[in-house]
Amino acid sequence: MAPPAPILQMSGICKEFPGVKALSGVDFRLLPGEVHALMGENGAGKSTLIKVLTGVYDIDGGRITLNGQDVVFAGPLQAQQAGISTVYQEVNLCANLSVAENIFIGREPRRLGRIQWKRMRRRAAELLAGLDLHIDVSAPLSSYSLAVQQMVAIARAVDISARVLILDEPTSSLDSGEVEQLFRVMRRLKAEGIAILFVSHFLDQIYEISDRMTILRNGSLVGEYLTSELGQVELVGKMIGRELADLEKLEDRPPARTSEPLVQTEALGRSGAIEPFTLTVHKGEVVGLAGLLGSGRTEIARLLFGADHASTGALRIDGEPVTLRTPRLAMNRGVAFCSENRRAEGLIPDLTVRENIVLALQAMRGWHRPIPRRTQDELVDKYVAALNIRPADPEQLVRNLSGGNQQKVLLARWLILEPRLLILDEPTRGIDVGAKAEIQRLVAELSDGGMAVLFVSAELEEVLRLSHKVAVLRDRKLVAELPNDDGLTTGVIMETIASGGRA
Amino acid sequence: MIVFKRMSALLLAGVTIMAAAGCGSGGDTTASAGGADDGKITMGFAQVGAESGWRTANTKSIQESAKAAGIELKFSDAQQKQENQIKAIRSYIQQKVDVIAFSPVVESGWDNVLKEAQTAKIPVILTDRAVDSADTSLYKTFLGSDFVEEGRKAGKWLVEEYKDSTDTVNIVELQGTTGSAPANDRKAGFAEVIGAESKFKVIASQTGDFTRAKGKEVMEAFLKSNPDIDVLYAHNDDMGLGAIEAIEGAGKVPGKDIKIITVDAVKDGMQALADGKINFIVECSPILGPQLMDLAKKVVAGEQVPARVLTEETTFTPEQAKAALPTRPY
Amino acid sequence: MTALVRHRLFWPAAVLLLLLAANVAFTPGFLSIEMKDGHLYGSLIDIFRFGAPLILVAIGMTLVIATGGIDLSVGSVVAISGALACLHISGLPDQNDVGGVLTAVGLALGLALVLGAWNGFLVAGIGIQPIIATLIIMVAGRGLAQLITDGQIVTVNSASYKLIGGGYWLTLPFSILIVLAVLALTAFLTRRLALGMLVESIGGNATASRLAGIRSRGLTVAVYAFCALCAGIAGLMISSNVSSADGNNAGLWIELDAILAVVIGGTSLMGGRFSLGGTVLGALVIQTLTTTIYSIGIPPETTLLFKALVVTVVCLVQSPAFREKVFQRRGRRRPAAPQATDDEKVEVPA
């Protein structure tokens, strides 16, 4: 069967930022009725390509044709009017408006100038029902999970213009059931002849949903492949440009646990967030926190860092009872916390990479004791090199970096404090395989060096691979503490989660 | 989108607070019920606010002369809001006072409330500022200064001062707040008189907002761009006082190198006049109290009063200022 | 050349130069500075001198805006500070007594600090939106100033006090020296010490700053107090310049001019990155504009319109988004990256 004519064709796209060549001569095409994955490491140019396509950036070279006609978009709105809609990882709707209002905002059904609320709600409900989503459309968007919000964004995008749909990392915050639901929707849209551009870091998902993929590396095109004809190992090799057998290998960890406890909690808890739990983290130990989204993983991390106040129980660090009223007090005790929410709770987007990295250290020293510029440069250079932060320009604004590199900047911020307990909340979410392996290896090295790590991740394989012991959470309760011996598998962890530790 | 919504909500909240702050002070009008028939006259007075020294003296004069004349005064301060003033007048109507007097914040929008007073058969006297109602039967009389006449007085002194000279006289003018009645009228009256002779030339005219700081700033700029200034005409004393500092700063002698005419005759201005730094002041008196009480008594007694009563005002030369200063009440 | 155009202070500086050039066209001797009685004297000096209070207030405002806040109360603080100082001096047996004048200055600035700390407490301690929190003193403060002056203009006759706003030292107006000192101090605190980065961090992302261990509460209170202190000094300057305190009119609307100066200087109202140099340029643009109006002789009725037009042009030229749209057809590369990420946040719901 001959492929249908592409609905969208980009050829020879070039884009340069001051000092960075973001895209050089990239070709890309999108066929109607396909799911097309755009692959590449962080900083390979995926986001730039999407932004060039939707008119967020103008292009320095190359051309874009839509349905055979040359197009130039001055902005996302124009692109949308031409039939290209984008749904981002972080849903950009108005959380305080109702679902129906969000779908029809700016184009409400009106008669004689008045909005026909009833008709609007009915149509919104029909639209969502078409995506197999049956919810109360008059409730505010914020009352639904991120997954539902995403579906609403997709429903809106599809209803406005239904030719090309761009999904930029839509799955990174979803659990597996929600991912399935999203995929059902994607398949339905695909059957209607909509071309879907899909970006995700989860290789399994790519293989499950996509028909075809285009791989970018360092702003250049590597090639276009049918998903069914390219194996995972080959794909990873093409993305990072080298053979990475060693990536897969992170040998079983020798039990590095010393007998000395660093952090001990005794029935520590916070009402409404996490039930009292007792947990000990030893020096040099990696403790994994496993559990579903919302099971209390992040809440434990925040309590140990003083980001929230405990309402019950006691906390000891080095055997000394402490009360952590502010993050600062925790930092003084050698605790560092890398939040799962990079954008909202980690980065200062307007500051440079250097400033973001030294921020916590500067906060510890206070405003009146500046870190000498030379010391700053030394520290920053060291960590930019050690963590392979790209571009390796400390004066670049951190907002211009890709997600994985931003994550590394945050890691660097905490590592220069040389903490004794490093709490990592989802440090590998939404970043590519290369960076992920680098971060995993780093965690292993740090713990070998005597640092304790509390590792929170939704990916059980990762937790299992890195941790000396795994604490399992369910329904805001710590239900089990499992030593990572040969008998522990993801299956066992999942069973523990399912049974609530009663087995 | 979200940001915009939040901003507008904030603004709304801001406006509400302002409004609340404004209302709070209007509340003291309902303090006591009006005693209508004990023979004693009750007057409701709705003041503009306390925006200047002139106004404070005006308030004081009214309060003191009411006491002296045995008139019971109900006083309210509108904080320069028409809305508050209307509220105050309505409450006076409800309390059935014998006569209502007020200095309107703005010129227009008074017809309704004045008709209510008329229906309740309560006579109304305007003080200091006029209203633009076509129906002049809505109020008995308007007591206040004639700003045009003040401008004319200033102009006449100037014509007299330079009657022997044929050289061009370069004049700079510091206007009051743009668009306000005193600024418009004082400018017009002055221009009317000096316009008759071509030797008088207004070479620069700019607003000084009735304040010293602004008067000084504008005068400095005048001095820079116009090397030959003979006369300064300032619409009030404060601007003139600021200008004096500017003139001294430029190494000139106020009152000699540059002759200065101002309007108002507040204490600081009179002092400067006595010191010879100002050459002539046209009085704009805030002491409306005695005349107002007089009019009130007549109106309540049903006597005819003229529709326009001018404030008793004079002008001052340095010698007159020296004589008047020790007994000047404000 | 492009590097120059891209510098973030290029546009405000260009506008300032343009305004000065317009003045020279109307008043040929505009740029000349001469010695008179041992003082430097000229229009340029005047711009600095009259702009001094605005620059001071705008410097404080810059830091407040950098934390993501705003301070509407500065105008009232200007009035209060001047009123309190003049009231105290007018009660002195010898108004020229330096000790007495210093006490007055101390009292006024002390009260300003208290008011600023109150603002900061409302914002950082209680969590009231800055625009509302500072509105309280904006409204109530003017009442307080009138209360202090009893609704009158308090006149003082003190040569020592006159020095602050109207005096000269080392041939320069003393007010300019004060501004330079405050500017130097602020630059030192923010750029030499780490205050600037921490403030920018709070304004850039308050939650993240807390989680990075920054004591944002204390810093925010300090910044509001500093802003009020600047306004307090400006109040002393304004009242000293005319030897009188006017509770009703001193510092009226100066908060709006200050905010405008900050914005013209390229600091975002959303908080984060700030530029002290830009703010000073912005304040000078505003003051030069006022001076231009006087020297060109624009009639008072059209003054506001003229100002509004110039300010609109300045703000448009300042906006990278606007420049991008206007200059787009030239096909030149532009530094698009930083603001583009911002656009992304807004565009999607549309």
Report on the architecture of this protein.
The complex is a heterotrimer of chains A (503), B (330) and C (350). Chain A is α/β, with parallel strands linked by helices and 503 residues long. Chain A folds into 3 domains: 8-244, Rossmann fold (3-Layer(aba) Sandwich), CATH 3.40.50.300; 260-334 and 419-503, P-loop containing nucleotide triphosphate hydrolases (Rossmann fold, 3-Layer(aba) Sandwich), CATH 3.40.50.300; 343-418, no CATH class. Helices cover 35% and strands 25% of the residues of chain A. In chain A, the strands form 5 sheets. In chain A, strands 6-9-10-3-11-12 form a 6-stranded mixed β-sheet, with helices on both faces. In chain A, strands 18-19-20-15-21-22 form a 6-stranded mixed β-sheet, sandwiched between helices. Chain B has 330 residues and is α/β, with parallel strands linked by helices. In chain B, the strands form 2 sheets. Chain B has a 6-stranded parallel β-sheet with strand order 2-1-3-4-5-11, sandwiched between helices. In chain B, strands 7-6-8-9-10-12 form a 6-stranded mixed β-sheet, with helices on both faces. The radius of gyration of chain B is 22 Å and the shape is elongated. Chain C has a domain at 41-251 and 270-279. Chain C contains 16 helices and 6 strands. In chain C, the strands form 3 sheets. Chain C has a two-stranded antiparallel ribbon. A two-stranded antiparallel ribbon of chain C has the order 3-6. At the A-C interface, helix 2, helix 11 and helix 13 of A face helix 9, helix 10 and helix 16 of C.
**Molecular shape of chain B:** elongated
Largest interface: A-C, 56 and 39 residues
The ordered string of helix (H) and strand (E) elements of chain B is: HEHEHEHEEHEHEHEHEHEHEEH
**CATH homologous superfamily label of the largest domain in chain B:** Response regulator
Low-pLDDT residue spans of chain C: 331-350
User: What's the total count of β strands of chain B?
Assistant: 12
Outline the low-pLDDT stretches of chain B.
1-36
Largest sheet of chain B: 6 strands, parallel
Strand order of the largest sheet of chain C: 1-2
Question: What is the first-to-last residue Cα distance of chain C?
Answer: 38 Å
Q: From the alpha carbons, calculate the radius of gyration of chain C and give it in angstroms.
A: 21 Å
Strand order of the largest sheet of chain B: 2-1-3-4-5-11
Mean pLDDT across every amino acid position of chain B: 84
Strand portion of chain C:
under 5%
The helix count of chain C comes to 16
Q: Considering DSSP H and I runs of 4 or more, what fraction of the residues of chain B is helical? A: 40-55%
> How many helices of chain B?
11
Quaternary arrangement of the chains shown?
Answer: heterotrimer
